[in-house]
Write a structure and sequence with these properties.
six-stranded mixed β-sheet, 17 helices, 43 strands, alpha/beta, Immunoglobulin-like, Rossmann fold, single chain
Length: about 800
Amino acid sequence: MNFYIEYPIILAFIIPVLIVLAILMNKCFIKFTNKQEKREYEKAHKGRKIFVIITRCFIILYLLVALSSPYTLKEEVMKGDYSLKILVDNSTSMELFDTNVANDVFNNIKEKIPVTIIPIGSKDYSPIGDELINKMHGNDNILLITDGQNNKGKELSHVMFFANLLNTTINSLEIPSKNYDYSVVIEGPSEAIVGTENEFFVRIYQAGSPPEYSLYVTVDDQPTPIEKVDNNLYKFSKALSHGYHKIKARLETQDYFKENNIYYKSIHVLPKPTVLYVTAKDPRLTTLLRPIYDIEVKENIPQDLTDYSAIILDDMHSSKLDSKTEYLSDYVLEGGGLFVMGGEYSFDKGDYQNSLFETLLPVKVGEAGAGGELSTTIVLVIDISESTGQDFSRTSSTSKVDVEKSLALEIIKGIDLRDRVGVVAFNHKAYSLARVGLLGEIESNITQKISALHDTGGTLVYSGLKQAERLMDGSLGSKNVILISDGVDAIPSLSLDLAKEFADKNIKLFTVGVGEATNRAFLQTLAVETGAQYFEPSQTQKLKILFGKREEMPQQETQSLVLFNTDHFITSGLSLNADVTGFNYVVKKASAQMLVSMGDGKPILTAWRYGLGRVIALSTDSGEKWSTQLLSTTNSKILMRSINWAIGDPQKNLKFYVKVKDTYLGETSKVLIKSNQQLTSNTLDFEKTDEDRYISYFTPSKVGHQEIFKAIIAVNNPIEYERVGLNNNLKDLVEITGGKTFKPSQTDELVDFIKTRSVRTKTTPRYWRWPFILIALIILLVEIFVRKIIESIRREK
């Protein structure tokens, strides 16, 4: 039986409490007239005092152990009921499918197991996630008859993870098409800056096999040429003038729904933001920026910064910044954007280290080893629970545990031999394969032990992470855990709580998901909680950037840049093909995000939020000497995105603006207005929220482009029409719960599967507080009883 402690910190109080108790018990609180009387009293009561000290020590010891909440994990085989709930989607989009199969399935299995049919959804909405939450009760079985197009309420993937925790099995049914249909959607920015080229995508969704279509796109009622990117995906680019613009996509075809053959979109093109460019040299970058921003170039930072949307500091020495840091700090705290570029007079070369200005930056000056620290400890935590014995994907017979072992071995090969490494495997309990030591000394032993792992037992991620934490006790420098798992966890709340402890202890938890049905949301949450990242198996090469072998990456005159984090606004969807010949030595701060790095992990582009504002650090120059390739047409997009992200809201310095998003027929939208004058309207009621801020609500009654205070918004038909056809992810989503997708003819297989799944193994914690409390109580009663006897004997004498 393996015991675990929920609150181990309480056990740390045992020794100091016992010391205090011993001191108190050795003190005498009775006043004596002379020393002889005191010696006689102590001699007479010496044995009783020792007895009391020992018993009180044991009482406190057992009570503290009880408070630390020891527990074991209990696996129970639970027999669920064989009943089945059939949830039938009644939303409008289901008119494309033959939903009569629900009655066929019901009639075929009603004599074999208890079954009920429950309608879900409504005409214009498909809140499948919410309906599942309401209908699942734990240890039950559900069959979904739906197209899987969830368009309201909770995310379907999150609901599936929750169902897995409740031991609810959700299955789906392949429903045959009855009608065919297309729908068209325009994807692209809703706001832009005048003079910029804006890229839009037109996506066609398809249900069944409808006939060919013709696609027409107009911008401000003028036809616009489009380029085919992929099957049913098109794009076009447009530089637009200041103001609001109307975009429309229209399909000409013969299909079922006519409501989704036209799509409206609006875009608000704003005037050029005013950007302050501070530099002591003649920068090349301003030539690239002037078509997009209103650039003011100065050699020094002025005192009044309120009119600027962002400030760019290009290779500025600290001697020119120290006296202005207070102005910059106030500017950023109140929502301003700051972009600090490196070079020969900044960061490590500009005396930023330990300066007040450095506190604004997402980096600190200094040369570091891999991962941003001089000393690095890494513990690999490998999931070997029974769930990892399943196939990695539907198209691969390789088990998840074999993929995990391969990934672990590849990661170890990429770690610097001078780093300290440990390895833990876990199922419902943890196994230390290697205690933390220099990788160069233990690598061969680790490789053999990892290769010999096999899947077995339940799953408790907490046990593996806790063991990793224990292995790192006493380690100095950077502490990192790499969890390789499918994300299935019997008690995820324990793991999430432990991740918060990791964050408090500056332990980074990187997670790698393995398998098609990986609980990505859970693994991402664990990583984000500690300021680390989640990786897919194909992305683990980025771990080498963090922990790579430094002897394999000697200092070179030229180094290629790597997009390290592609989930950020600045880097999302971009490509980068640039080399640098120089850089500044900086280290990413704990709460910052490294977006671009060099191959050896040195930060190049790092971002963070500071108060209400945003700060970016580019630790190479602005293209003058070290990074000329960043000024190419393709690579310069990352600089523009960086400035746009720093600006944040392009309208924040305008005296009047209207903010309202494109919406759908019948949906209520929020209208935000900034104005220094009282607002009046015949159709809207405004509520004042601040000195010059107003809010109202708008519910459209017709589709098309509409105007609110000269702001143009697009109103489309209900969202139910937007995506048609089967959700291709539905099959993977139900597998998260252990469910399957069946054909209407497979009712016997469905019944057998439900009966099999109804016998479940559930892992639950069993707490053992009461035995320790009972022992403490017995010791106390024994002590009182013995003392009473001794007192009675003493009185008789």
